[in-house]
Amino acid sequence: MTLNRPQRTLAGFVMTPAQEIARRRTFAIISHPDAGKTTLTEKFLLYGNAVHLAGSVTARKNQRSTTSDWMALERQRGISVSSTVLQFDYRGHAVNLLDTPGHKDFSEDTYRVLTAVDAALMVIDAAKGIEPQTRKLFEVCRRRGVPIFTFINKCDRPTLDPLALIDELESVLGLAPVPVTWPLGNGPSFRGVYDLRHKDVHLFERTPGGAFRSPESVSDLSDPIVKEKLDPDDYAAAVEQLEMLEGAGHAFDLAAVHAGQQTPVFFGSAVNNFGVDLLLQGFLHDSIPPTSRNSVAMNSPGMPAPTDAREVSVTHEKFSAFVFKIQANMDPKHRDRIAFVRVCSGKFSRDMVVTHQRTGKSVRLSSAHKLFGQDRETVDEAWPGDVIGLVGHDAFGIGDTLTEDRTIAYDEIPRFAPEVFAWLTNPTPADAKKYRAGLEQLLLEGVMQSFEVRHAPPGATLLAAVGPLQFEVVQARLETEYNAKSRLTPAPFEHLRWIAPHPSLDTPENLLMPGGVNLGSDKFDHPVILFPNDWTMDYFVEKNPDLKLHDQPIELVE
């Protein structure tokens, strides 16, 4: 592939590969639950003409039904429990938007999605400020060096002082905030935002149900219309705050934004579609296109010598990508599973043959899809930054590398020690086949783990997750997607640790173990040990000093 060779046209212009890559924007929206993340996602689709009406406002009886929340459980609860990819074009940009769960019980899915993005949009409730899950997700972004943009939402409701919200970004998260828009009024008296870049006012008009784009009229801050619309005290407060920002605020520095040191801040109301267009335009203008990824050193199957760690540029001619998510049963009619793949270099072409690095086998990528929530359409080509769905490859696992260059291998996906445990059993023997097939498919998604345990109840599978709602999701999906009921029983464990290989594990009956401690193995047959409380874990460590315990899987430790 030559970077100057024309590839296709967009609005009459010939696009080179370099131009295709430059117009990609791949990002995730992160927030604490109920800050308005999924609502904002829907409104982005509205402005991108991906939907005519945002899903959350199509009808009163379906008020909580959205494009990105496609599972039955999500629609019933009004929450996101699974990450979703939504793709659309907007003003010349090819947007890959990843809607992630906000609830802490599904945070592992969110952490994995953050490995596939180039930027993050952080949504904050203007009445609550920075909340615990927001802070946790922010730290994941910081560790990965992901640039962060901030949208302070729900300005049409009573809010905290905007200067206090700005200060909190700096004092709590250590980010230098740079307001791009500023609220005029608060709650019931909210009348619009001031655009600090273009020095104009966008006035807010509430629309019934927020079903359509909110009308916006633009004028200068000193315009009599603005003074007429605003409460005098709100107008005076806004003028004073803007003067303070001009004198004491941070100067906008695009390099600092891209380095994750500075965050552009926008204010608005997602449910009323106000400020969303300004946010989307500003984000796409200032966020970065796809960047290089790091390939790790490895012994690739069939390679004569180990490969070296190196940086893989997006302009590298050979295709490479990694699997960051697997979703089972997105199409209930076919019981298929889809691997979400982030393209890192080269060009994807349908029916191309690549190497599946973990197995060393050649694989033809014939069934590839562009994704829009649960809907999909066949895709013939994709570029770095794009997320595509590959169907029909049961051997693919989370973290796997697919590449034309066998010297490339990505190690992007974090794994976490589970925090909650439960026994899952099949109460209906006649449904055994459906139960096993459904559980196997759901476990392949990698959000939840299962372990073999020496003293398990008859017919029980030990499930482990980072939050208890994961168990409820599994039960609900087994019943709705596979027509198989299940029984869930809490397991008496608080901690799981992986055990480094040691000869004494060959005769576990000789180990000194307090009551309630149980030995088992993970899906790779690595030994694990489960403890009912802190005391039993401390006792085991004291009495068996030769055994080394780890809170991460053995393959990561090694």
Automatic annotation (TrEMBL):
GO terms for molecular function: GTP binding; GTPase activity; translation release factor activity, codon nonspecific; translation release factor activity, codon specific. GO terms for cellular component: cytosol. GO terms for biological process: regulation of translational termination. Residues 22-293 form the Tr-type G domain. Keywords: Cytoplasm, GTP-binding, Nucleotide-binding, Protein biosynthesis. It is found in: Cytoplasm. GTP binds at residues 31-38, 99-103, 153-156. Signal peptide: none annotated. It comes from Synoicihabitans lomoniglobus. Its main location: cytoplasm. This is Peptide chain release factor 3. PANTHER family: PEPTIDE CHAIN RELEASE FACTOR RF3. PROSITE patterns: G_TR_1 (PS00301), G_TR_2 (PS51722). Increases the formation of ribosomal termination complexes and stimulates activities of RF-1 and RF-2. It binds guanine nucleotides and has strong preference for UGA stop codons. It may interact directly with the ribosome. The stimulation of RF-1 and RF-2 is significantly reduced by GTP and GDP, but not by GMP. Belongs to the TRAFAC class translation factor GTPase superfamily. Classic translation factor GTPase family. PrfC subfamily. The lineage of its organism: Bacteria, Pseudomonadati, Verrucomicrobiota, Opitutia, Opitutales.
